[in-house]
Amino acid sequence: MSVRLSVADYERLAEERLEPGQWAYLAGGSGDEWTLRENSAAFARWTFRPRVLCDVSEISTATTVLGTPIELPVVVAPVAYQQLYHPDGECATARGAAAAGTGMAVSTFSTRSHEEIAAAAPGLAQWCKLYVFQDRGVTREHLAGAAAAGCRAVVLTVDTPRLAQRERDLRVGFEIPSDLPLPYARATIGDAPQNPADQFALLDPSVSWRDLEWIASEGGLPVVLKGVLTAEDAEMAVEHGAAAVVVSNHGGRQLDGVSATLDVLPEVADAVGGRAEVYLDGGIRRGTDVAKALALGARAVLAGRAPAFGLAVAGEEGVRHVLELLHDELTLALCLLGCTSPDELTRAHVQRATT
Ligand code: LAC
Q: Which residues are catalytic?
């Protein structure tokens, strides 16, 4: 068996195992993939300022998100169509996340229902990642199902009124197989094979701030807005009652040319000013990446591709191991920074690299 010491090892193995179309869809970004590369590059633009002699004999990475205790400040991000990567799809990811002591956001384009996932991983903190269909009845049913299955929050992705052009997918002719189960979307989509952009055309681009209220009341759940990149929208999010915002550019898959998430995190965190929780996603591959995000104002990060690489390589066990690698790397980073818990990380622990 090949050595798996890092998320990068899983990334290489996942690329070897997946079909070109599946790999293009999972790994790719939009346009020139400039933002996709920036997300990763930004982590190298911040360096650490460690403190010494801090008594780091006991270290915990545990924290809470929206009041739910988790063992590490890394929640599994929503990733669509997971049966493409493993026959058990989201159920395997859920069991891996539960084993690692964290939660998981489940895509509207999930291949398993919230109920099936809850049965596969009892006690897992599940979030419902919502896209709003033009047919609001479909979305109402989705939210009701999520609430009934015990989901603890609705994550509304706000950066995708239209799916961006993903040239990698188009070059290899990637299509969603027509027999892929999609409990929240298949009835609306029908059973012709389609590329993701066709499926997204059924979503409602008219969604606006006015819709937040019914989304919150329909599911009776706190709302997390994923895709906030400016102080202006952070302020609007708080004013409209969002429980949390995710500083996200959709993993470099939507508007190419926006900044790396790590670079805009301080602006958003300052605007939110502690009135909601702030998370970050995009490019997380190392525990040190998590530490930098926390130092710059995130309470937790969401990681999508990293656990998905684990899923593609080794199912539940791969997801658990990827999360465990991030946990162990974060523990080491905290120790060497002179911190005993995520709460102790501050902006004084990082600085912009000078070269
Ligand atoms: C994507 C959608 C499914 O990024 O969120 O492909």
A: 250
131 Cβ below 6 A of ligand 1: no
pLDDT tens for the chain, 355 residues: list them.
689 999 999 999 999 999 999 999 999 999 999 999 999 999 999 999 999 999 999 999 999 999 999 999 999 999 999 999 999 999 999 999 999 999 999 999 999 999 999 999 999 999 999 999 999 999 999 999 999 999 999 999 999 999 999 999 999 999 999 999 999 999 898 887 688 888 888 999 999 999 998 998 888 999 999 999 999 999 999 999 999 999 999 999 999 999 999 999 999 999 999 999 999 999 999 999 999 999 999 999 999 999 999 999 999 999 999 999 999 999 999 999 999 999 999 999 999 998 6
Looking up tokens 């590369």 gives: 37
* Ligand 1 pocket check for 72: Cβ under 6 Å: no
Spatial CA neighbour of 25 closest among 160, 155, 171, 133: 171
Question: In the chain, what are the domains?
Answer: 7-352 (3.20.20.70)
pTM, rounded to two decimals? 0.98
Tokens of 201: 């055309």
Using the mean position of ligand 1's atoms as its centre, give its distance from the Cα of residue 354 in Å: 35
Residue 82 has φ and ψ, to the nearest 5°, of -70, -15
